[in-house]
Every structure is written in structure tokens, then in C-alpha cells.
Amino acid sequence: MNAKAESKDSRLDILKWSVVAVLVAVAVVGNQYFAATPVLYRVLGIVALAAGAIFVALQTAKGGAFFALAKDARTEIRKVVWPTRQETTQTTLIVVAVVLVMSLLLWGVDSLLGWLVSLIVG
């Protein structure tokens, strides 16, 4: 891409992010301004403005990159082989056993060192 096209895209992205900021600000201010309006209508308005802001944000370079990253992450999550219930239970029990053993070991070392220090100091 040449420098003019990149500069134009950059300016358009700045304009798009400005639109996103305005939509978010309108949602916040509108929620305060229409505080007496039923909550359902305010929520619907905020959802509509948020959808518009997300749509505009996805049209930017960074928004498109984020969407591609999210799509790739979803693809990778589908490739994960999740453990069975039995494997999860066994692994949890092993972790609990190791934590108990290590806590007893550290307690013993701490007690021994405390006893040695009290012999030296006392």
C-alpha cells in the first residue's frame, strides 16, 4: 500500500473511532438523561447504541484485526481435547495430595528452623 492510501485509512480510522466514542457518550448521557424512563427502554437504547459502536469499531483496522483474532481463538478452542470427568477428578486429587504433602513438609522445616533459632538465641 502506498503512503497516501495508508494516510487516508488512518484518517478514516480516526473518524470511525471518534464515531464510536460519540456513540458510547450518547449511551451514557442518554441513560442519565432518561433516568425516569422505564429500564427496558433504556437497556434497548444502550444495546442498540452498543451494537452500532461495535459495528463501526469492527470497520477499523484494529477492529478487523481483533475480530480475526477472536475468530482464530474460537477455531483453536474447538481443537482442544477437554479432559473427561474421571481425568479431572484424578488430577484434582493429585493436586490436593501434593499440596497437603508440601504444606506438611514446609511446616516441618519451618518448625525445625524455628526450634534451631530459639536454641541459638535463647
What does this structure look like?
It is a single chain. This protein has 122 residues and is mainly α. 88% of the residues lie in helices and 0% in strands. It contains 4 helices and no strands. The chain has helices spanning 3-33, 39-58, 61-79, 85-121.
Can you tag this structure with a few keywords?
mainly alpha
Mean pLDDT across residues: 92
Structural class: mainly alpha
The fraction of residues in strands falls at under 5%
Radius of gyration: 29 Å
Distance between the termini: 78 Å
SSE pattern: HHHH
Low-pLDDT runs of 5+ residues are none
| DSSP strand tally | 0
Assign an overall shape. Answer: elongated
- The number of helical runs is 4
Helix content bin = over 70%
For the sheet with most strands, the description reads: none
Short description:
With 122 residues, the chain is mostly helical. It has helices spanning 3-33, 39-58, 61-79, 85-121.
Would you spell out the secondary-structure blueprint of this structure?
Layout: H1 3-33, H2 39-58, H3 61-79, H4 85-121
